[in-house]
Every structure is written in structure tokens, then in C-alpha cells.
Design goal:
seven-stranded mixed sheet; 45% helix; 19% strand
Length: 380
Amino acid sequence: MKNLTLLFAVLIFVLGISCGSKETNVIRIGLIVPITGDVKTFGESVRNAVLIAVEEANAKGGINSKTIKIISADDKNDPTEAANACSKLINQDKVKFIIGSVASKSSIPLSEICQQSKVVMITPTSTNPKVTIRDDGSRKDYVFRACFIDPFQGTVAAKFAIENLKAKKSAILYDISNDYVKGLAEFFKDAFTRMGGKVSVYESYGKDDVDFSALLTKIKADNPDVLFIPDYYTKVGLIVKQARAIGIKSTFLGGDGWDSPEMAKIAGDAINGGYFTNHYSPQDSRPEVQEWVAKYNAKYGSNPDALATLGYDATLLLLEGIRVAGSEKPDAVRDALTKLTNFPTVSGSITFDAFGNPVKNAVILQYMNGAQQYVTTVQP
């Protein structure tokens, strides 16, 4: 009996060593994106791309001879869900790195938790400045992003409206409860006014609103050259359909939240002729872009949108930070990311500024016949 007990104890010890050694040969990365909810196509795109990047890295032997393991969580595009998912990944799953989320309203609370916990976070697509800086303007030094920020995006949209569309007067509709939408509306308004334009209507709505007739009637009476709607495709589709139905002739303009194959399905012909700022175009002839488009298309049967592309880029950036650091210590990876210079990604070469934001180009796309068409590239 003693021999059996001893043998059992030895087996448990050996198995424990084996399991432990296997786990020490794995780099665990948390992924927080909306797989359900109102912008689920965004989350699906990012997740798909992250998995491609990780599969490629593991096929080449991993990073620093370790296998990458993604632990996913669905935040449903809800800040509370995002915060809960982040806490679980850090406290229970013991991750030291997090990719996410998609929307700024979810990434902002994530950034607070990651900064406090000293966990390196990189958001692929959240463009609000508050993701990487505190209210007092100081840097959250464990937080990075793969996308440009809204002050730049708002300025690009305003410049395009005035210089290319020859707009003199604009109206703006925005969701008062959404940090991304509200911020982009403010940045566009400031830039458009600074460049000599006039914002004649500046109105907000609630996140659950579906009838915009009162606001649109006011805009129709004002007859602006441009109607700027910096919301996500689900809401924009409803607004533009109602706008065209009551006879509004203004040119529609928006931000990167318009980038979804669902936009044309929701908006129908109403979105035709509308322009939006974005992070990349699959029509870009650069070899790295065309290689990425072919790779994604082969795996998922569709062209990668900007969300997917930024998800891929964010993963490449994080993995490069871990590789250069030669360590999984968050401090070391943070320092390695900070020092990256002209790192090649699909959306462009990336060097982080003092606030963890990449300096990169933007593109203008237009919806025509239900599809996106490349218009021009704007440099910072």
C-alpha cells in the first residue's frame, strides 16, 4: 500500500512538472472584441486577423521559441462587459498582454485596468485619444494602438470636405453617449470651422434612437453642403436612408466606423456617393497590401476590411515587442514597443509617438453601387 501511495505521489509530481513546463513554453495573450452586439462584424474581422497572425507566428516556431496562445472574450461592445472580461483575463487567466477592444468606449475602461495592472495593451482600432492618455494629459505608458487617432481623422475629413468637396456649410449628427462618435464630431467641427467652414447644425441623439425625422427635418431646412455622421455602420445606415427619404441632398461624410460589408445592406442606395476616412484600402497596389488581401481572402472568402487589417497589424506589433524584449515582462515589452522605428505593417510603417499612437497615413473611400472605392491618401 505504501508503495502504491509513493508511486501515485511520484506520478502526480511528474505530471505537475510536465504540465508546468508545457505552460511555461506558452505566451498567453488576451483578445477582447465584440463577437455579439451591434458591431459584431468589427469584432469578427479583428478576431479573424489576429488568428492569422498567430498561426503564422506559431508556424515559424513561435516567439522566442514559445507558442502563442490566444484567450478570447466577447465584450458585446459594452464598456462594463469589456471591463469584466479584462479583469478575468488578468486575474484568472494571468495574461500579461491584451489585444482589444474595437470601440473606444470599451477600450477606455480596458486601458485603465491594464495601466493599473501593468499589463501591456494594444488596441487595433480605437481612435479616441483617451485610450492612451489620462484626463490630465499624462501618458498611459502600458497602452498602445495600431490606428491613427480622431483629431487626425477629424482634420482629414474636414480638409477633404473643404478642399475636395468645396463645402462651405456642414451639419453634424452624433451619438452623445459614445466617446468615439462624440469625439470625432468635435474634432471635425473644430477643424472645419478653423479652415473657414461653417457648422450650421450640430445635434445629438441617443444610442437607442431609431427615428431621426425631427433632426433631419431641421437639417433639410438648413440645406448644408455636407452632413457629417461619425457613427458606426448600423446607425449610419438608418440615418442616411431616412435622410434621403425626406429629400436631403447633402453629401454624406463619416469616419472609419462606416467600414463594414453590412453598410450597403442596411443603407441600400442611400449610401451611394458617401465618403469616409479609413486606415487602408484593399485596392492599394503595395505588395504587402495585396499579399495580405489574398491571404485573408483565401482563408475567409472575403476581402479584409480596415478592422481586420488593423487587427493583424496590432498583433504583429505586439509579437515584435515580445520578440525584441526577449522576455514576457510587461515593462520590457512596453519599452521595446516604445522604441520600434518604421516597423512594417500592412497599413504602413509604424513609429509610435510619445503617447503610444502610430504616425501614419489615412485614406478616403467612397461608397458606389454598394461597394467601397478608393479616392485618395492623406498624409499626416
